[in-house]
Structure formats: structure tokens, C-alpha cells
Amino acid sequence: MKWQALICSMVLSVGTFFANAAAAITLTGNINSHDPAGLIKEGGTYYHFTTGAGIWYSYSTNLTHWTAGPATVFPSGQWPSWINSAVPGFAGQFWAPDVIYMNGYYYLYYSASTFGSSRSAIGVTRTASLTSPNWQDQGVVVQSNGSSNAINAIDPALFTDTNGNVYLSYGSWFGGIAVVQINKSTGKIVSGATPTKIAGGNGADWEAPYIVKAGNYYYLFVNRGSCCQGMNSTYRIVVGRATSITGPYLNQSGGNLNSTDGTTVLATSGKYIGPGHFGLLREGSCNYVSTHYYDGSNNGNPKLDILSLTFSNGWPTLTRNFTVGACATGTGPIADGTYRLTNKNSNLSWDSWGCSGNAGEAVAQGAYNSYNCQKWHLSSDSSGTYRIKSHINNNSAETTGCAQYAGALLQLGAYSGAACERFILMPTGDGDGSYYIALAGGGRRVGVPQFSGSGQQLQLQDPASDLWQKWFIVAVSP
Q: Which stretches make up the Ricin B lectin domain (predicted)?
């Protein structure tokens, strides 16, 4: 069973800190955490939601120093009335939240359960702002009936696919891990959708799933072992990958996660005991992974950890040895001016397709002929992000509908300074002067499908080292 009830004995206290090992970043302030949500950012502030009475959170402006929020999501001793019948015995201790921005709101998903039972429910509340929140509960999303083979309705995690579809993964012990599509307008399960089991089952120790996409693969990160026992906790994080959101997810040896273990990516090391509950924030080229661990140098108290996620040969690696912001602000020495932007794979260049320069016109790749609609004026601001303006009028590159998901298309639009109109230029490290061009909002990179040709509209893609995400930025005459 999941030992969440023991979380109460590790209740969050203010003012603690830890000094990481020499190779790790140092987090300070209120870093108490258990089953943290993936970090999320509004404006210049990062937010970290975690298990606790009423749903507790902290915030930071630099990812390293954290301050306790002024109030919990639900007032002390209060919770939505629908939980009383869905989960008899619930006492206000919410588990393992996750948060996503969609449809103009921040949707916060949370778990309501009791120790050792699969009589559980996942609910959702939303607010238009995290800075000045006004949480409005939207009710139950999915629930489980208490049976031994139920997909236990706890540990929600949200994922936005390359086509903009949103999915909920969830589950713990009992019936295993499942995934199901979410209606972006309501935050609830799509009408008629059925959860698909993708890992675990038969009462085995699988819980806290989280799905990430990189390149052509979906990666499922899951906890194995037992949590909530302080320095005796055995949590570790494993992974499998698939070419479909619904699996099958296979480990690095080809084993199916429905019947065998995943590939371990993070386990107990030094004072970092029982790490668990993977969450991801993409910012620029940075992949910030939040987890909790039990601090072996502080009586096993649960704390927040932040690591960096990279991929090598198609498989993920987590490390504490990184510099916050170095990847996000790795802008190269590109002076303001007029440029041709040419793809390293196709040798085709950015092109306002149709050459009108009008708002709504697609930004595609085409054979370079020195047309004005193939010339782009780059101008940077004090934060190092760039506006990419068409040379033939005042419209700039942006994503359609200001979307930030993988697969969102580029077009021209009137410039307002929004994050979907600002880009980060990052040297690829190939030694040939090529760059990644990433969206400042969300951090996904501009690319084209591998074998696409002239006329292919540019799109956002999850960060990868593929040639079709690499661009030569070459000065041209205006």
C-alpha cells in the first residue's frame, strides 16, 4: 500500500534549508516537499505545489530560494463537499497535486484518499492567476471504487501532446498506472474516453506516473518501491518509452512495463534517500525536474530537489550538476540586424509563405532566393530574447493562437511582446555556428519534420538534438 498517511508526521515546517553536495545547486528557504507537482511559472515567479492539508505551495523568483505561500489552495479544514461521499473518512490531507496552464486558466489537479485504500478521487480546481489566485473547484475528474484491481485515482500528472491534446496519467499500487485524454475546455475526461493501463498492476509498487515527449518517443517516469518512511524509504524512479501515448512502454532492455520493471534513472544516493515523484518544467532549453527526497542529513525529512533532464541515445539522464538558467539564457552573440534563417537538415530557409507579410500568413521553409519575405529582422531585449520580424512589413513570427505546445505552428502576427512572439537563440555546440531557436514561452524549439520539403510550415517541437531543429543564422543585406 502507499504510505501517504505517514506524510502527516513529516508536516511542512517553515525556514529549513539544505546545502547540496558540491556538484549540485543549493536550494534555500522553505523547501519542504512531498510528491511535488511539476514546477510552473507565471511571469517571473515559479510555483511549487505539494502534498499537505489544503494543498500547500511555495514560490521562487530564481528556482533556488523558496518562500512559503501566504495561504493554502483550500482554507484550513475546508474542502469541496463532493469529496465527503466520494471518499468517506477524508480529513483534508490532499496528496500529490499537479498543475497545467490551458484554456486561460491554471488547472490544479489533486488527490483525495485515505491510507491503504483505493477508494479515491482526483479533483480539479482552477484560477486565472497564481499571483492573485481565486480558486474555483470544478469537481471530480476520475474516481476509484476501492476494489483490489482498481486504477487507484491518485497521483495525477498532466501532459500536452504535440497535437495539443492533453492527457492525465495517474495510479498507485492496486491496478497499476493508467492514461486518459482530458477535455481542455472543461479539465475533465473527454466524453466516452476510457483509461488505458500502461504499467504495473496486480498490487505491485507502481505509482506517481509522469509522461514526457522528446523526439519520436513518449517517456513514462514512474515511482517504484515505498515512500513515506523517512530514511527507510525505498522509492526510486524508473522509465520506459513508447511511440504511442497509450504504450506499450518498454524499458531499455525491451521489457514491457505492464509485466516487468522500468529502467532506473534516479535512486538513493548519499543523503538523497528515496527520491520520487518526477515533474518537469521546460524553460528555454532547460528541462527542470522536480522531485522530493528524504534528507539523510536531517532525520529523513522530505524536501524538494531540482535536477536537469537530458537525453542521450534516446534515453533520459538526470543530474544535479547544472547551473540554473545557463541553458535558458545561452543566447549567442547575434547582433540586431537582418538575417536569413536556414535549416541545417533541409537547407531551406524561413519564408513568409505567400510573400504578402500579412497577419496570419504561415511561416514556412522554402528555397532561398533573396526575396524580402525570406529576410528577417532580429532585435533583442534586455533579457536576451529576440523578436523575429518580417522584412516586408511590421508583422512578426508568433505561434498560432499563442500556443506553446509541441506541434504549434508559426505564422505572422501583430507584435505585442507576448511570450509566444519572443525567441531564445542557443548555440547547438556543433562548432559550425548553428543555433537552436526556442520559444521564450514554454521553451520548445522551432523545427520542421525530418523529411519535409519546401512549403512545410514551421512548428514547435520538444527539445532534441536533431538536425531539423538546428538553424544557421546568416546576415543578409536589407
A: 334-411
d(CA 118, CA 120): 5
For 353-442, where are the E strands, in sequence order? Answer: 363-366, 376-380, 386-390, 396-399, 410-413, 423-427, 434-439
Kind and range of the H or E run holding 446: strand 445-447
Mean pLDDT calculated for residue range 397-404? 94
Q: Which of the residues 207, 283, 295, 351 is marked catalytic?
A: 207
Residues 6+ apart with CB under 8 A from 446: 410, 423, 437, 438, 439, 458, 459, 460, 461, 469, 471
Counting Cβ atoms within 10 Å, is residue 281 exposed (0-12), middle (13-18) or buried (19+)?
A: buried
C-alpha 438/C-alpha 444 separation (Å) is 5
pTM value? Answer: 0.71
Helix (H) or strand (E) holding 319: strand 315-319
Cβ burial, residue 153 (10 Å; 0-12/13-18/19+): buried
Sketch out the chain's domains with CATH numbers.
4-319 (2.115.10.20), 337-475 (2.80.10.50)
Is 35 catalytic? The answer is: yes
pLDDT band at 24 (very low <50, low <70, confident <90, very high): low
* 296 and 270 Cβ atoms separated by less than 8 Å: yes
Q: What is the mean pLDDT of residues 210-223?
A: 92
Amino acid, single-letter form, for residue 189? I
Determine whether 42 is an active site residue: no
Residue 331 scores a pLDDT above 90: no
> Distance between CA atoms of 250 and 240, rounded to whole angstroms?
5
Listed residue (451, 448, 339, 325) closest to 386, CA to CA = 339
SS3 140: strand
Options 35, 295, 361, 421, the catalytic residue = 35
